[in-house]
Write a structure and sequence with these properties.
Elements: E1 4-15, H1 19-27, E2 44-47, E3 54-63, H2 69-86, E4 90-100, H3 108-114
Antiparallel strand pairs: 1-3, 1-4, 2-3
């Protein structure tokens, strides 16, 4: 049985940031620029506080079967919340979205390669 790659995006908003927290996030923003997003097993955080207080963690996880996808989503959500809690950031409006990459249709280039 082959593993499915599941892309999990955990979105939310920072809440009640202190001046020091905001300064720390702004100082580290270059490493979390939303223009350079990647999906990683450990999760990649992006945000742009100059626009809005929203954040997104992007995870690339594996699932053996379709029934394992909700578990992967829960693991990603817990990992994101754990990171936020460990760094002392309050948050709100957390939402989780999953995409099973085995179900994503190939574009024209992909179809040409499969011939």
């Amino acid at each position: 049985m082959s593993q499915r790659t599941i892309r999990v995006t955990v979105r939310g908003a920072f809440a009640d940031l202190t001046g020091d927290q905001r300064a720390a996030l702004v100082a580290g923003q270059a490493a979390h620029d939303f223009l350079h997003t990647v999906y990683t097993p450990e999760g990649h955080l992006t945000y742009d506080l100059s626009v809005r207080p929203n954040f997104a963690f992007r995870f690339a996880l594996e699932a053996a079967e379709e029934k394992d996808i909700p578990t992967a989503a829960t693991e990603a959500e817990l990992a994101a919340i754990t990171w936020l809690d460990e760094h002392g950031y309050a948050y709100k409006d957390v939402k989780v979205q999953t995409v099973d990459m085995s179900q994503v249709p190939l574009g024209a280039r992909g179809r040409k390669r499969d011939r």
